[in-house]
Amino acid sequence: MDYTISIGSNEQRRENMELARRRLTELFSGIRFSEEEETVPLFFHRPNLFSNQVACFASDNPVEEVTACLKAIEREAGRKPEEKEQEIVRLDIDLLSCDGTVYKPKDLKRDYILRGLKQLL
């Protein structure tokens, strides 16, 4: 199955993005990453910039298992549910699509994701 994910952080961005890339590379051989891009927050009032990146990989693992791996990496970076209200995103890794099934249609329309996808094609 072919997976597309997005990775983002607005807190300790460099360290958390590196952690995400390292863990994802360990889990999914052959993963490819777009260039990391700095963006302004879309919905937050907190002024911290985001680092964002898109990645693609193939895996025989089912969607539920891949999603569980992504959420485990977020927790490893220290992400806590209560921080969402404070607009702190240590690490956010979202499944955008798998084999043509789109899980985050609004995200797939964002400029930085479109640019990342173009780099990966």
UniProtKB/TrEMBL annotation:
Gene Ontology biological process: folic acid biosynthetic process; tetrahydrofolate biosynthetic process
Pfam families: HPPK
GO molecular function, one term: 2-amino-4-hydroxy-6-hydroxymethyldihydropteridine diphosphokinase activity
InterPro entries associated with the record: Hppk, Hppk_sf
EC number: 2.7.6.3
Keywords, alphabetical: ATP-binding, Folate biosynthesis, Kinase, Nucleotide-binding, Transferase
Pathway where this protein functions: Cofactor biosynthesis; tetrahydrofolate biosynthesis; 2-amino-4-hydroxy-6-hydroxymethyl-7,8-dihydropteridine diphosphate from 7,8-dihydroneopterin triphosphate: step 4/4
Domain annotation 7,8-dihydro-6-hydroxymethylpterin-pyrophosphokinase: ranges: 5-120
Stretch forming the signal peptide: none
First-level EC class: transferase
Primary role: Catalyzes the transfer of pyrophosphate from adenosine triphosphate (ATP) to 6-hydroxymethyl-7,8-dihydropterin, an enzymatic step in folate biosynthesis pathway.
PANTHER family noted in UniProt: 2-AMINO-4-HYDROXY-6-HYDROXYMETHYLDIHYDROPTERIDINE PYROPHOSPHOKINASE
Family per record: Belongs to the HPPK family.
Protein name in UniProt: 2-amino-4-hydroxy-6-hydroxymethyldihydropteridine pyrophosphokinase
Species per Swiss-Prot/TrEMBL record: Bacteroides uniformis str. 3978 T3 ii
